[in-house]
Amino acid sequence: MSGGKPIDIPTIEATIAPSVEAAGYRIVRVVFTGAGRRATLQIMAERADEQAMTVDDCADLSHTISALLDVADPIAASYMLEI
């Protein structure tokens, strides 16, 4: 991330929220931490139906969000996506 533009969390959230909500989830928090090889975009979500999140829920969200971020490309540097 050195020398790059700052990470715009509200834009990232606005990019992914419609698809996340359409899939039946709510975004709780979006956080970008670290830099370089340890950079991580952490997205916390919960199910809209108030049921407990499962590993399958996280995997589904990961695939959906990853595809959206690949297209929008809001983060110039490489990073890990954590759901």
Structural class: alpha+beta
Q: What is the distance, rounded to the nearest whole angstrom, between the alpha carbons of the first and last residues? A: 21 Å
Anisotropy-based shape: globular
SSE string, helix = H, strand = E?
Answer: HEEHE
Count of individual helical segments: 2
Mean pLDDT: 91
Strand fraction: 15-25%
Largest sheet: 3 strands, mixed
Give a verbal description of the structure.
The protein is of the alpha+beta class and 83 residues long. Helices cover 39% and strands 24% of the residues. It has helices at residues 9-22, 55-72, and strands at 25-33, 40-47, 80-82. The chain has a 3-stranded mixed sheet with strand order 1-2-3, covered by helices on one side. The radius of gyration is 13 Å and the shape is globular.
Briefly, what is this?
This protein is α+β, with helices and mostly antiparallel strands and 83 residues long. It is built from 2 helices and 3 strands, in the order αββαβ.
Topology readout:
Elements (H helix, E strand, L loop, with lengths): L8 H14 L2 E9 L6 E8 L7 H18 L7 E3 L1
